[in-house]
Design brief:
The chain is mainly α. Helix 6 packs antiparallel against helix 7, helix 7 packs parallel to helix 10 and helix 8 packs antiparallel against helix 9.
C-alpha cells in the first residue's frame, strides 16, 4: 500500500505535465521525464527496505511448504514441519540434556569474602611465593582459594557470594567423597587463619598443598558431579 500513493502522485504529475506542456515528447525524452520523476524523494522512500524484502522472502518460503496437488493436506505442511522441528528439539534435550550455557562461575564472584579474580594457577604461584618467604598465613589462604577456584572452574562446585569455606568443603566432599574429611579439615585451617587469628605453619600449608594436588589428579564422583552452594 505504501507504493500506491506515490504512483498516484506520479500519474497526476504526468497528467499535469501533459496539460501544462503542450508537447509530444519522443520515447527517449519521455523515458527521461519518468526517471526524473521517480528519482524524487517521495518515490525513493516508498521503495521496500531490507527488512521488507527479508520478511517477504520468509513468507514466500513458508508458502512454498505446501503440497502442490491442491489437496487440503497441503495447507498443513508448514504446521507439520514446525511440530517435527519442536519434537526433534525435545528429543535432543531428553537425550543429551540442557546445553551448558556457561557453568563456570564468574571470576568476579567473591571467594570466601574476598574479591579476587586471580586464576587457580596465579593463586598457587602466590601461595608458593608466600611459603618461600615464610608467610604461612598468606600461603594457606591463597592455596585454599586456589583449590576452590580449581573446583569451581571444573564445575564440581558452583559458588555464590556469601559461600563460606565450610559450605564449600561440604559440597565439594560430595564430588570427592574419599577426600571429604580432608576438605573439612583444610576449611577449618582457612577459617582459623583468616577469621580467628590463628597462625599458620608449614605443616598446615603442606596439608592444604597435598589435598590440592590430590583433587587436581582425581575425577569427581560420577565424572560430572556438581553441587550448587547457596549463600
Amino acid at each position: 500500500m505504501g507504493v500506491i500513493a506515490p504512483l498516484l502522485a506520479l500519474s497526476a504529475a504526468l497528467a499535469s505535465a501533459r496539460s501544462e506542456v503542450p508537447v509530444d515528447p519522443d520515447a527517449p525524452e519521455a523515458r527521461q521525464w519518468l526517471l526524473d520523476e521517480l528519482g524524487k524523494p517521495q518515490y525513493q522512500a516508498a521503495r521496500p527496505n531490507w527488512f521488507d524484502e527479508l520478511a517477504q522472502s520468509i513468507w514466500e518460503w513458508f508458502q512454498s511448504l505446501t503440497v502442490p496437488d491442491g489437496s487440503a493436506f497441503g495447507g498443513l505442511v508448514p504446521l507439520i514441519v514446525i511440530v517435527l522441528v519442536a519434537a526433534a528439539v525435545v528429543v535432543a534435550v531428553l537425550v543429551f540434556g540442557l546445553p551448558r550455557l556457561n557453568r563456570r562461575a564468574p571470576r568476579s564472584v567473591p571467594l570466601f569474602g574476598a574479591h579476587d579474580d586471580r586464576t587457580a594457577e596465579q593463586l598457587r604461584a602466590a601461595a608458593q611465593n608466600a611459603a618461600a618467604g615464610g608467610r604461612w598465613n598468606d600461603a594457606v589462604q591463597d592455596l585454599f582459594r586456589a583449590l576452590a577456584r580449581s573446583l569451581v572452574d571444573r564445575t564440581v562446585v558452583l559458588v555464590t557470594p556469601g559461600t563460606t569455606a565450610h559450605e564449600f568443603a561440604v559440597r565439594a566432599g560430595a564430588g570427592f567423597p574419599d577426600h571429604a574429611a580432608e576438605l573439612l579439615a583444610v576449611s577449618r585451617i582457612f577459617d582459623g587463619v583468616r577469621y580467628l587469628g590463628e597462625t599458620a605453619t608449614l605443616e598446615r600449608y603442606e596439608s592444604v598443598r597435598a589435598l590440592d594436588a590430590a583433587l587436581t589428579a582425581s575425577t569427581p564422583a560420577g565424572h560430572e558431579s556438581r553441587a550448587t552452594v547457596s549463600a
